[in-house]
Amino acid sequence: MIKMFNLKNKTVIITGGAGLLGNAFSKACVEYGANIVIVDIDEKKGNELREQIKKETKNNNIIIFQKCDITNIGDIQKLIEITLTKFKRIDALVNNVYPRNKNYGRRFEDVTYEDFCENVNMHLGGYFLITKEVSKIMIKQKSGNIINVASIYGFSAPRFEIYKGTDMTMPVEYAAIKGGIINLTRYLASYLGKYNIRVNAISPGGVFNDQPESFVKKYSEKVILEKRMANTEDLIGTLLFLLSDASKYITGQNIAVDGGWSL
Ligand SMILES: NC(=O)c1ccc[n+]([C@@H]2O[C@H](COP(=O)([O-])OP(=O)(O)OC[C@H]3O[C@@H](n4cnc5c(N)ncnc54)[C@H](O)[C@@H]3O)[C@@H](O)[C@H]2O)c1
Asked: Looking at ligand 1, which residue's alpha carbon is closest to its atom 21?
């Protein structure tokens, strides 16, 4: 049974690997035996994480950091080339990046058409682009596993009162992007299934990251389990489940990991 969750000898690409969730995802994959390619535009953070994991792990897994902008086809092709040279195959792609332009995070009335389009292009378009390129390899291999990190805001509506008194909001682009990612997951699961490629999504609830106290309090009131925000540890089990053979008969699903917030 334990073996079911083992990722030994699997090559996993984790995009946005240097970020909040990416950190935890990268460490968990290594702990469960995977060789990983941490992908990020932040070279400093990516290299630091690689060194940190190497120091902490007792496993002999190979850990690579590759600087790559997932909206840039040249960068993606280079990433694939480097991964194949090193590992000969790509078993899994975790789409976890969080691209945003400089105006991201404004309230609905203040979002321009240009900013809306640019953010959708970068985030939803970026997920499409890297998935398209990596799936070409998976199609040749006749196997693969793609996990898209979506959000509770991809399938449920925000309650704007929780942002009152802070400079935070839930950006309109985010709802469109994450909703798009959830249905892209279903589309790709259906399209790529014949090549033995599974595609699933994880929709985390809000993850605690030192947000303003009033927001944390109001958000937490709606959470059923433990009345608290998520932490990165809460997401690991679902990621490992979807990456491993324990879920080998599951595709096209979106698993909400939100303590019941969206019920
Ligand atoms: N943090 C939350 O509360 C939360 C909740 C639900 C869903 N999510 C989703 O989880 C994922 C990770 O979020 P996070 O909170 O860890 O974000 P984060 O900002 O901490 O990390 C995202 C990483 O992506 C990298 N990145 C941005 N644009 C890139 C690009 N074009 N190419 C390559 N790398 C790029 C950044 O450098 C950063 O390291 C996102 O898809 C986000 O929407 C987060």
From this structure: 19
Q: Tell me the three state secondary structure of residue 261.
A: coil
Listed by start position, the domains of the chain span 2-257
Does residue 87 contact residue 79 with C-beta atoms inside 8 Å? no
Residue with CA at minimum distance from ligand 1 atom 29: 99
* Atom 42 of ligand 1: nearest residue by CA position: 98
Closest ligand 1 atom to the C-alpha of 95?
Answer: 41
pLDDT, tens only, 83-127: 999 999 999 999 999 999 999 999 999 999 999 999 999 999 999
Name the class of domain 2-257.
Answer: alpha beta
What pTM was estimated for this model as a whole?
0.98
CB distance 70 to ligand 1 below 6 Å: yes
Cβ-contact 86, 105 below 8 angstroms: no
